[in-house]
């Protein structure tokens, strides 16, 4: 009884890996694991975000709370977030921004003096820790001397007119997406079942060339193609299939039911992970695994409940007439 | 106003047990586990893992209410096992699976990056 295990051994094949996008296939596990990891990446992988703003002066057109909200939504490089503490659990401080374990202070001080409208962006935020800065600023530092387009100018916070001023102190804290979406590192995380498409070749050959083309065109996405040489219908991109069943309906309408059979493989998933830039997409997935592990560990039964049940079990056995 | 604090969704209140275990008084080898501040993420993986165990006769979970942040997992086993044993085994197996997944994923990313550079 001791050495039983119903463990699975999932496999992974990575298709595309960039800092902010990750595409991979996950096989030999079930939808519950795939979905748990997806849910955790969206709602439980921690990042840093501005959580407290003290405004010293604000003569801009946006009111204070509007600005505070905009500041909160700026993604911040959060590679250290997994090791940091939540302000609530930090016993070294009261979460006021001067604590190395749980918070980072930012300052912003801009005044428009020229006749031109002045853009206040995330690049104007001055961090107390040079390794923790808004995401786009990090990107800018990385590819200096690249292109001078709009996307290297940071995230716009507010525009100032001549004479207007903005001065504030902001504190970034660790948090999770479950608390507020600003802490979610995920832009999108999706998974799809891998479709398995079988064409009934014998039945397909009973169709004329025009009918074949008509049937192929009934799919809203480009899944099938007519081979120009053999004039046979071939599957070009099974993943383009959106489970819309249009081709099945079309086959039915043409009086050829069973022309094609489409299944979804129950143990094979294609994941797409997109990050806001706060954490690398691949790191997001690894963090999700770690968090799921610690969640499982947290729901382990405590020793005293197990012990109490053992005694209860004996008592129960006695009550039922003793012995087994 | 009277909105509950957002952290109430994931912080177990002081004095409350994370996992409560209650034996079924009418059915042999049946029990209910109440997991505080957990949701479908944990409930569903536990249930699916329990279904892989042949000594588990029944395993199911529910979220009683979207604003009560707890899941209830019910397990019934045959005489070869007990709900507690099955529950512990499911957690151990899932942890091992995740360890394996992590190792495989790291190996694959390293390989992919080696190809790239």
TrEMBL record, chain A:
What subcellular locations does the record give?
Answer: Nucleus
Q: Which residues form the DNA-directed RNA polymerase RpoA/D/Rpb3-type domain?
A: 21-302
Membrane-crossing ranges are: none
Q: In terms of domain of life, where is this protein from?
A: Eukaryota
Sorted alphabetically, which keywords does the UniProt record give? Acetylation, DNA-directed RNA polymerase, Nucleus, Transcription
Q: Name one GO cellular component term.
A: RNA polymerase V complex
The answer to whether UniProt assigns keyword Transmembrane to this entry is no
A single GO molecular function term of this UniProt record:
protein dimerization activity
PROSITE patterns (alphabetical):
RNA_POL_D_30KD
Record-linked InterPro entries: DNA-dir_RNA_pol_30-40kDasu_CS, DNA-dir_RNA_pol_insert, DNA-dir_RNA_pol_RpoA/D/Rpb3, RBP11-like, RNAP_Rpo3/Rpb3/RPAC1, RNApol_insert_sf, Rpo3/RPB3_RNA_Pol_subunit
Record's keyword annotation contains Phosphoprotein:
no
Q: A biological process (GO) annotation for this entry?
A: transcription by RNA polymerase II
Q: SUPFAM superfamilies attached here?
A: Insert subdomain of RNA polymerase alpha subunit, RBP11-like subunits of RNA polymerase
> Where mainly located?
nucleus
Q: Which PANTHER family match?
A: DNA-DIRECTED RNA POLYMERASE, DNA-DIRECTED RNA POLYMERASE II SUBUNIT RPB3
Give the family per the record: Belongs to the archaeal Rpo3/eukaryotic RPB3 RNA polymerase subunit family.
Protein's recorded name: DNA-directed RNA polymerase RpoA/D/Rpb3-type domain-containing protein
Source species: Physcomitrium patens
TrEMBL record, chain B:
- Coiled-coil residue windows: 84-111
Alphabetized UniProt keyword annotations = Coiled coil, DNA-directed RNA polymerase, Nucleus, Transcription
Taking the first listed entry, what is the main subcellular location of this protein, grouped into a coarse class? nucleus
SUPFAM superfamilies in the cross-refs: RBP11-like subunits of RNA polymerase
Q: What are the recorded GO MF terms, alphabetically?
A: DNA binding; DNA-directed RNA polymerase activity; protein dimerization activity
Keyword flag Nucleus: yes
Query: What InterPro entries does the record point to?
Result: RBP11, RBP11-like, RBP11-like_dimer, RNA_pol_Rpb11_13-16kDa_CS, Rpo11-like
- Check the UniProt entry and state the signal peptide residues, or none: none
* Cellular location(s): Nucleus
Annotated DNA-directed RNA polymerase RBP11-like dimerisation domain residues: 30-102
Keyword Cell inner membrane assigned = no
CDD domains listed in its UniProt record: RNAP_II_RPB11
Q: Report the family membership.
A: Belongs to the archaeal Rpo11/eukaryotic RPB11/RPC19 RNA polymerase subunit family.
Query: Could you identify this protein by its name?
Result: DNA-directed RNA polymerase RBP11-like dimerisation domain-containing protein
Species in which this protein is naturally found: Physcomitrium patens
């Amino acid at each position: 009884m001791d050495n039983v295990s119903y463990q699975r051994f999932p496999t992974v094949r990575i298709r595309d890996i960039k800092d902010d996008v990750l595409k991979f296939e996950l096989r030999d596990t079930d939808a519950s694991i795939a979905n748990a990891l997806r849910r955790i990446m969206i709602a439980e992988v921690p990042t840093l975000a501005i959580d407290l703003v003290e405004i010293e002066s604000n003569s801009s057109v946006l009111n204070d709370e509007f600005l505070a909200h905009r500041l909160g939504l700026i993604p911040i490089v959060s590679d250290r977030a997994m090791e940091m503490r939540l302000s609530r659990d930090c016993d070294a401080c009261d979460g006021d921004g001067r604590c190395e374990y749980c918070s980072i202070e930012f300052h912003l001080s801009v005044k428009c003096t020229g006749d031109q409208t002045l853009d206040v962006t995330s690049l104007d935020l001055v961090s107390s820790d040079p390794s923790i800065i808004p995401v786009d600023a990090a990107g800018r530092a990385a590819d200096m001397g690249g292109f001078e387009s709009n996307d290297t100018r940071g995230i716009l916070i507010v525009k100032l007119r001549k004479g207007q001023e903005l001065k504030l102190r902001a504190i970034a804290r660790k948090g999770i997406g479950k608390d507020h979406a600003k802490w979610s590192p995920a832009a999108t995380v999706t998974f799809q079942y891998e479709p398995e498409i079988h064409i009934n070749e014998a039945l397909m050959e009973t169709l004329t060339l025009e009918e074949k083309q008509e049937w192929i065109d009934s799919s809203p996405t480009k899944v099938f193609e007519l081979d120009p040489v053999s004039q046979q219908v071939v599957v070009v991109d099974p993943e383009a299939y959106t489970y819309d069943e249009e081709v099945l309906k079309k086959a039915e309408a043409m009086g050829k039911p069973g022309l094609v059979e489409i299944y979804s493989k129950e143990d094979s998933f294609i994941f797409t992970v997109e990050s806001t830039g706060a954490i690398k997409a691949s790191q997001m997935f690894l963090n999700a695994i770690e968090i799921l592990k610690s969640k499982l560990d947290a729901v382990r039964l405590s020793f005293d409940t197990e012990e109490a049940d053992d005694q209860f079990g004996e008592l129960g056995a006695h009550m039922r007439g003793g012995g087994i | 106003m009277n909105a509950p604090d957002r952290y109430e969704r994931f912080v177990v209140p002081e004095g409350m047990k994370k996992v409560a275990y209650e034996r079924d008084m009418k059915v042999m080898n049946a029990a209910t586990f109440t997991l505080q501040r957990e949701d479908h993420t944990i409930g569903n993986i536990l249930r699916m893992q329990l279904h892989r165990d042949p000594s588990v006769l029944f395993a199911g979970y529910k979220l009683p209410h979207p604003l009560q942040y707890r899941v209830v997992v019910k397990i019934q086993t045959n005489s070869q096992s007990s709900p507690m044993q099955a529950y512990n085994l499911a957690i151990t197996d899932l942890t091992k699976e995740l360890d394996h997944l992590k190792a495989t994923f790291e190996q694959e990313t390293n390989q992919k990056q080696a190809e790239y550079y």
